[in-house]
Design goal:
- By secondary structure, this protein is an alpha+beta fold.
- The protein has helices at about 5-20, 60-70, 95-105, 110-115, 125-140, and strands spanning about 25-30, 35-45, 45-50, 50-55, 70-80, 85-95, 150-155, 160-165, 175-180, 185-190.
- It has a single domain, classed as Pnp Oxidase, Chain A, CATH 2.30.110.
- It has five helices and ten strands; from the N terminus they run H-E-E-E-E-H-E-E-H-H-H-E-E-E-E.
- The model has no long low-confidence stretch (mean pLDDT about 95).
């Protein structure tokens, strides 16, 4: 049987070599407590056998939806490779050490932006945000920018992974992996 995480590594490596921009961009689909869906692009910032990582402001719409309904779907689409990967599973916050380590790798302006932004909240005008950015820049001038308490990451633990490969005449190949108590089971789906 194929290891679905090893297969992800293979496809992701190829995407990083061929996609013209943001090969780590992934659609994140969430739903609120009433089941109303919402989707947006986020950037994959880590992955492995334990899951797939992305980061956000905990006051954002997505974070509120994740608190209400901690189940998500991810969709990678790499047009240049004519491939996509769908991942479904529960999500949980990462630990502080993981969030701190990733935050330290971000550019300084991105770190400052995490402090300045009330993500997903109404903004009266662009200048208000830029003024807040300038205030935060002055506040942390000359020193490191710590991770804001309202900013962290989530890990998606895959329960279902589908690999889709475009084929001629819409005779696509779909491979499905589902997590079981003993590991993964593999099968095919009609296109």
């Amino acid at each position: 049987m194929t290891d679905p995480i090893a297969l992800f590594d293979e496809w992701y490596t190829q995407a990083r070599e061929t996609e013209p921009s943001d090969s780590n961009a992934v659609t994140l689909a969430t739903a609120d407590a009433r089941g109303r869906p919402s989707a947006r692009m986020v950037l994959l910032k880590g992955h492995g056998p334990d899951g797939f990582l992305f980061y956000t402001n905990f006051e954002s719409r997505k974070a509120h939806e994740l608190a209400e309904n901690p189940h998500v779907a991810l969709l990678f689409h790499w047009k240049s490779l004519r491939r996509q990967i769908r991942i479904e599973g529960p999500v949980a916050p990462v630990d502080d050490a993981t969030a701190d380590a990733y935050f330290a790798t971000r550019s300084r302006d991105s770190q400052l932006g995490a402090w300045a932004s009330d993500q997903s909240q109404p903004l009266p005008d662009r200048q208000t945000f830029m003024d807040r950015f300038d205030e935060v820049s002055a506040r942390f001038e000359g020193g490191p920018v710590p991770r804001p308490p309202h900013w962290s990451g989530f890990r998606v633990t895959p329960q279902r992974i589908e690999y889709w490969q475009d084929r001629a005449h819409r005779l696509h190949e779909r491979r499905l992996f589902e997590r079981t108590a003993d590991g993964w089971c593999e099968g095919l789906l009609y296109p």
